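W.,

You were right to be curious about this one. When I first looked at the sequence I had no strong expectations either way, so I just let the prediction run and decided to look at it fresh. Below is the sequence, 138 residues in total, followed by the output.
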Amino acid sequence: MERKIVKEDFKNIGIKARMAYGICCLENALVHYNKNISEWEELLSLLWEFPPKQTMYNEWSEKFNEYTPSTIFEYSFKSGEWRCTEETYNYYKDLYSRTEKPILDIIEQLIKISDEALYVGMTKYSPDTLAHVETVLD
């Protein structure tokens, strides 16, 4: 019988490993829901760049934040206000509108993990990011 992975398994694991585990969960969810992985390559590639080089934190975070479901669904595209093109915005809006909620939830948790790591600080074994890992596990 397989043992279920629980939050306590991540207490002594650093932020990079927590983020990597979350990305693997996203990849598994995409497979589970029979998603075309090639449609997700750009986002997955961006996620696997975490953590960005020290000097690139803000740029990486702003780009990833722009691609999250909550941002895409909440804000309309206005040229000059987005780093991406209107074509990219529409691509993600269409992609997310065809995507199951558990996948969208994992993406949102990944942005929370990365934001806390980047803006609160990449503290070793951060309890702040552990809560988001727990949500991904659920």
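Here's what jumped out at me. The mean pLDDT is 81. And, maybe more interesting for your project: DSSP finds seven helices and no strands in the chain.

Coffee later to discuss?

I.
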